[in-house]
């Protein structure tokens, strides 16, 4: 990153500010050299004698990542997306009722993401065993949603079940990829439209945990825990100096 003064002369000693935090990497002869070790979207700038530079927006892509495209709408704004993650979160029990839990994360290019939590039926496989029934276009229930910024702050979320519906047309499922199209048919957050879609390859994660059930309070807690995890992940991003 080139750092110059108002006369276009290179500055030595300007500090890199990464995601809002000065991190002890400084310019030398007008250049800050650094490496970001994790894919994602980042905002960087420089600080010198209490003066901040303009911001630079950086997107780091994994060349081996899943290939897909999508978008979501929130608060009358359209977010273009190139990455999605499908997670099987586990089997959930409440007496005789057993469901499989799912989560879809759709990441916009700007770093803002849409989060969807929903459930399908679970199939009995033994005396105490269950396996999930894969989501399709008409078997998902109890869907919730939220929008988070790149640092994990919740910008808005559904307050109760029924404010959003989701469907998932799956063509193929492998160890770490789902190929298919995820869609919401309608959604409302804070009284405004909330919609999302993603087609192509979705990264696939299996947690397979066994949990206590899917009440609205538990789902709300799960969204909050996920957001807190995103905040911690943002704090732990690694930036290295390049000499």
pLDDT < 50 stretches: none
Q: Note the total helix count.
A: 1
Order of helices and strands: EEEEEEEEEEEEEEEEHE
Structural class given helices, strands, pairing?
mainly beta
Radius of gyration: 21 Å
What fraction, in percent, of the residue positions are helical? under 10%
- End-to-end Cα distance, whole Å, is 13 Å
User: Beta-strand percentage?
Assistant: over 45%
Largest sheet: 10 strands, mixed
Number of strands: 17
Average residue pLDDT: 88
User: What characteristic shape results from the CA principal axes?
Assistant: elongated
In words, what does this structure look like?
Helix content is 8%, strand content 58%. It starts with 14 loop residues before the first strand and ends with a strand. It has 1 helix and 17 strands. It is mostly beta strands. The strands form 3 sheets. Strands 7, 8, 9, 10, 11, 12, 13, 14, 15 and 16 form a 10-stranded mixed sheet that branches. Strands 1, 2, 4, 5 and 6 form a 5-stranded antiparallel sheet that branches.
């Amino acid at each position: 990153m080139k750092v110059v003064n108002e006369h276009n002369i290179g500055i030595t000693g300007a500090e890199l500010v990464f995601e809002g935090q000065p991190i002890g990497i400084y310019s030398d002869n007008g250049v800050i050299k650094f490496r970001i070790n994790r894919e994602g979207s980042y905002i960087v700038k420089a600080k010198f004698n209490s003066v901040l530079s303009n911001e630079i927006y950086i997107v780091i892509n994994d060349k081996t990542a899943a290939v897909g495209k999508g978008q979501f709408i929130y608060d009358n704004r359209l977010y273009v997306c190139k990455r999605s993650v499908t997670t099987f979160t586990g089997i959930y029990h409440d007496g005789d009722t057993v469901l499989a839990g799912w989560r879809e994360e759709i990441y916009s290019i700007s770093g803002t993401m849409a989060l969807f939590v929903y459930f399908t039926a679970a199939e009995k496989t033994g005396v105490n065993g269950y396996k999930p029934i894969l989501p399709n276009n008409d078997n998902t229930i109890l869907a919730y949603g939220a929008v988070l910024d790149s640092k994990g702050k919740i910008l808005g979320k559904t307050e109760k079940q029924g404010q959003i519906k989701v469907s998932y047309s799956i063509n193929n499922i492998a160890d770490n990829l789902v190929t298919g199209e995820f869609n919401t048919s309608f959604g409302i957050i804070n009284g405004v439209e909330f919609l999302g879609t993603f087609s192509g390859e979705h990264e696939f994660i299996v947690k397979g945990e066994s949990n206590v059930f899917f009440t609205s309070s538990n789902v709300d807690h799960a969204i909050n825990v996920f957001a807190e995890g995103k905040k911690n992940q943002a704090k732990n991003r690694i930036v290295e100096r390049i000499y």
